[in-house]
Amino acid sequence: MNSIERIAGLGQRIWYDNINRELITSGGLRSLVASGVRGVTTNPTIFEKAIHEGQHYDDEIRALQAQGAAPAEMVRELMISDVRLAADALRGVYDRSLGEDGYVSIEVAPDKAQDTEATVAEAKLLWTAVGRPNVMIKIPATEAGYGAIRAVLRAGINVNVTLIFAPSSYERVAAAYMAALEDRLADGQSIDRLASVASVFVSRVDAVVDGVLRDKLKLAPTSEAKRLQGLLGRAGIANAQRIYQRYRDLFRGKGFARLRARGARPQWLLWASTSSKDPSYSATWYIDRLIAPDTINTVPPQTFAALLKHNRPRALLEAESGQAQSVLEGIRREGVDLPEILDSLLEQGLGSFLASYHTLTARLADKKELLTAE
């Protein structure tokens, strides 16, 4: 039994946070599935890297070019092709689990993130174009996104809600999911195969908070240094623990019981941004501390390689949850405004994905000219 299977025994699924054409066509993805991977996520930054680093997309780019496709259309079509192929590789997992596992995510264009109607239209377009039941459409947890999440789920489309940082944002995402289930029941529609996950970003929180704490450490007397050091690498985990407790309250309580009785599944938490940004932390720092039932961890390639060598995973999230409040209070006493940081991280995440999207469209425009000149 490998570490992925051991983690599954503790109630958590491992997804792979990467996708590219070579991984799919070489059989690499099927090997990952055989090792226990139960889903795949991607985003504009990952896809931009995939396009940039190889020639695996050139034939399709030529075909799209011959059809007169603009760079933005090429981006969509290339993503759809990869996601469709990946979904096929995971279809057996989806079927055997009766729709609980085996999902591949594809993100709406980030330039639609602040427009509810445009996000809904894009989600429906992607869902129809991919044409696979084991796909989730990624929608960011923005003000415009909450309404889009509800509308897209109401239409029977699976949703991966991304870029969740704050507990208050998570609560609105969970509320949108439950409201969509109620909408479908009112519409006379089934809810037993609708799937959704709420993606909470973790290590990006520590990347900011640790920076503030390390600046304080430079000036701190020895008597305070140990206390400050004890807070390093803990803010993102404490925030995740707080959100997980809220998940338990919402989905294991009476409020969800009626929907569960009608076949609804909980909206599982998915831990994203779980690579160690600080080299002083172990590669599996966030893997170890985020294992809990009813959760998913989507793991980037380098962290995944370290995970495969990790033989003794333990379910520490609930075991260490009692530390969350003291960590959060300690951070607050140091003058760190965590709510403000969480809000800024959402904006930074949106900006990063949008920048990658623009880089990708520009890169495809350049490649289009290059292939034309051949």
Can you give the mean pLDDT? 92
How far from one another are the termini? 50 Å
Q: What is the H-and-E element order?
A: HEHHEHHHHEHEHEHEHHHHEHEHHHH
The 3D shape can be described as globular
How many structural units, i.e. domains?
A: 1
Structural class: alpha/beta
Count of DSSP strands: 8
Largest sheet: 8 strands, parallel
- What does the radius of gyration come to? 21 Å
Biggest sheet strand line-up: 1-8-7-6-5-4-3-2
Helical content (DSSP H or I, runs of 4+): 55-70%
β-strand amount? 5-15%
- The CATH top-level class label: Alpha Beta
CATH topology: TIM Barrel
Descriptors for this entry?
8 strands, about 375 residues, alpha/beta
Task: Give a description of the structure.
This protein is of the alpha/beta class and 374 residues long. The protein has one domain (3-373): Alpha-Beta Barrel (TIM Barrel). The chain is built from 19 helices and eight strands. The protein has helices spanning 3-9, 21-25, 28-35, 44-52, 58-66, 71-89, 91-96, 116-130, 143-154, 167-186, 203-219, 222-229, 235-251, 254-261, 285-289, 301-308, 316-319, 324-333, 338-373; strands at 12-16, 39-40, 103-107, 135-140, 159-164, 196-201, 268-272, 295-299. Strands 1-8-7-6-5-4-3-2 form an eight-stranded parallel beta sheet. The chain starts with a helix and ends with a helix.
Blueprint of the fold:
Elements (H helix, E strand, L loop, with lengths): L2 H7 L2 E5 L4 H5 L2 H8 L3 E2 L3 H9 L5 H9 L4 H19 L1 H6 L6 E5 L8 H15 L4 E6 L2 H12 L4 E6 L2 H20 L9 E6 L1 H17 L2 H8 L5 H17 L2 H8 L6 E5 L12 H5 L5 E5 L1 H8 L7 H4 L4 H10 L4 H36 L1
Helix pairs in contact: 4-19, 5-19, 6-19, 8-9, 9-10, 10-13, 11-12, 11-19, 13-18
